[in-house]
Amino acid sequence: MFNRHDLLMAINKNKVVQNFYVLPCCLLLLNLVNSVVSYKSGIIDDPFLRTTAVILFVLFGSSITAFVVAPALTTVVRLLHQSSRRGAGELGEILFFLVLGGAVFWLYYRMCLYGTASIVPPTWRN
């Protein structure tokens, strides 16, 4: 059986993982979305209209991310985290976080090396 101390340690560990790993990954993904918005705004010729569109899309995207995507992603991450932990123990947890971090790194690597066009579907390219 778990005693109170073990339960508090498990809760604190989950909060640490969420605050120092999952949340930064969500913020990095939001930054990638902002890069895509900026890239796609290149098809608008008028600088005033382009700037307005970027601001509106970033505000809209940030709101959607904050109120829909981040809570949903946190729930999915928590479920995947629990299932990988249950299925493979400590090794499963480590592998899960390596895959999550690797995916975010790979997207940033492609964007930095080849540009934003390399991370969008071919039909979205300017």
Provide structural commentary.
The protein has 126 residues and is mostly helical. The chain has one domain (4-124). 83% of the residues lie in helices and 0% in strands. It contains two helices and no strands. The chain has helices spanning 4-40, 47-114. Helix 1 (4-40) crosses helix 2. The mean pLDDT is 80.
Number of strands: 0
Order of helices and strands: HH
Number of helices: 2
Report the mean per-residue pLDDT as an integer.
Answer: 80
Overall shape: elongated
- Estimated share of beta-strand residues: under 5%
The biggest beta sheet reads: none
Distance between the termini: 59 Å
Derived from helix and strand composition plus strand pairing, the structural class reads mainly alpha
Offer a few descriptive terms.
126 residues, mainly alpha, elongated
Describe the secondary-structure layout:
Layout: H1 4-40, H2 47-114
Quick structural summary:
With 126 residues, the protein is mainly α. The protein has two helices and no strands.
